[in-house]
Structure to design on (435 residues):
């Protein structure tokens, strides 16, 4: 039996009640993370919150603990949390259930690809906390299976994704049908001015909590890039696998087709990789995620389906086989590693025409990404910028002697200016990158 002494006092000081402290003790959460420390007391006051914190820093518990605590056990569906993917709905509910263990507060996930009948059945049990993807939530609201008239708290996880063009209309439709007054809590690791403006349309004088301090990526991720010709990506990947022998990896591709093709190639070479993308049936998606969570699969080849929110312990490597077009996506992809203080390595493949894309990423994350090279893989020099003969004047990063062939490990980062704290004029984009 637990005594009060074993309960996490630091959470108690934020206003968390004993039943939830017990659950937290069981989860071995002894100290709140920074975003939890900042958000929990404000949320418990009932205020709207727009919260920003880096990937893997506990935003789920930051919005879930206060919401759970404010639930009235006598009433159904008081919290509606919307997330961008089915996998994230499943994961958030799993965390919410652990946080609510022993409290009598129930939660269910609703998402596409699962039988409507199953979900009708689950909702029939009158859960207090519903986590869903927008399409399915709208569908169930339309069928009057999901009654939102009792919703007192609405949450958007990954708010910038939820308010971007793909989901925006669905979100507007759903939120407009929720009763007022209610509390609205939105979180993400990346919230730009445009999203901030849009988000505020749904909020009343929100507390804007940003604990990311202009550093969007986690310090513990060792970020590098590799120059590669498009046709040569697979050979580079092989060199990386040989050199790094990664324990647990997600390889990101930009399309389902590319993910499928790459997985086939890896299989042919005896690498036990599994693909996950939107073309697979839901059952298959869930099985793959489940095996990956249990570390029964060492390599996942994924589309951006897996880039947001997915929390699998001890992912050692993120490989951007295709550089993401949207720099924010980069932040989320590499955020699958180095979660809650652990380390990790992110390696991005950059082809000759993607230099400016990498620069955009560096501007967003306010950091230079160092070049790495791997034993047995030498990228062909660019025709207009020979590597051997450095031109006079400002040097391109491609001219830096960064090859550390002896160890095969990533080369030391090229000399760079002191870490830049703010964007704008202080940010000096990488010069001369012509790839
Ligand atoms: P984010 O949404 O910010 O990316 P998550 O909410 O997915 O991060 O949390 C990342 C991991 O950290 C999860 O496995 C979660 O269970 C764990 N975690 C969250 N808060 C704490 C805490 N206070 N102490 C220990 N682990 C925590
Ligand atoms: Mg999250």
């Amino acid at each position: 039996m637990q005594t009060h002494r074993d309960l996490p006092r630091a959470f108690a000081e934020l206003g968390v009640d004993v039943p939830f402290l017990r659950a937290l003790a069981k989860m071995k959460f002894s100290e709140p993370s920074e975003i939890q420390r900042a958000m929990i007391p404000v949320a418990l006051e009932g205020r709207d919150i727009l919260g920003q914190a880096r990937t893997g820093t506990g935003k789920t518990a930051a919005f879930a603990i206060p919401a759970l605590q404010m639930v009235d056990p006598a009433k159904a569906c008081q919290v509606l949390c919307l997330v961008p993917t089915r996998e994230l709905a499943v994961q958030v509910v799993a965390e919410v259930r652990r946080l609510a263990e022993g409290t009598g507060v129930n939660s269910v996930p609703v998402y596409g690809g699962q039988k409507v009948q199953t979900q009708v059945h689950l909702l029939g049990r009158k859960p207090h906390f519903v986590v869903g993807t927008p399409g399915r939530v709208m569908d169930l609201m339309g069928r009057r299976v999901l009654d939102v008239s009792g919703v007192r708290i609405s949450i958007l996880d990954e708010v910038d994704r939820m308010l971007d063009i793909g989901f925006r209309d669905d979100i507007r439709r759903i939120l407009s049908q929720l009763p007022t007054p209610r509390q609205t809590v939105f979180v993400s690791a990346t919230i730009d001015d445009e999203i901030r403006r849009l988000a505020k349309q749904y909020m009343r004088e929100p507390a804007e909590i940003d604990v990311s301090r202009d550093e969007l990526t986690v310090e513990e991720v060792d970020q590098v890039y590799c120059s590669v010709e498009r046709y040569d990506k697979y050979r580079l990947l092989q060199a990386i696998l040989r050199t790094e022998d990664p324990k647990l990896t997600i390889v990101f591709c930009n399309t389902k087709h590319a993910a499928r093709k790459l997985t086939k190639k890896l299989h042919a070479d005896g690498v036990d990789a599994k693909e996950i993308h939107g073309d697979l049936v839901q059952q298959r998606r869930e099985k793959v995620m489940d095996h990956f969570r249990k570390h029964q699969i060492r390599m996942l080849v994924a589309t951006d389906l897996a880039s947001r929110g997915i929390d699998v312990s001890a992912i050692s490597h993120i490989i951007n086989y295709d550089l993401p077009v949207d720099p924010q996506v980069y932040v989320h992809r590499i955020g699958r590693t180095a979660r809650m203080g652990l380390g990790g390595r992110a390696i991005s493949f950059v082809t000759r025409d993607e230099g400016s894309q990498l620069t955009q990423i560096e501007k967003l994350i306010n950091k230079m990404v160092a070049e790495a090279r791997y034993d047995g893989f030498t990228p062909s020099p660019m025709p207009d910028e020979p590597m051997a003969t450095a031109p006079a004047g400002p040097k391109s990063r491609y001219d830096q002697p960064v090859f550390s062939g002896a160890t095969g490990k990533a080369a030391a980062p090229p000399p760079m200016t002191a870490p830049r704290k703010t964007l704008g004029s202080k940010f000096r984009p990488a010069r001369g990158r012509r790839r």
Q: What stands out?
A: The mean pLDDT is 88. The domain at 4-212 is CATH 3.40.50.300 (Rossmann fold). The radius of gyration is 23 Å.
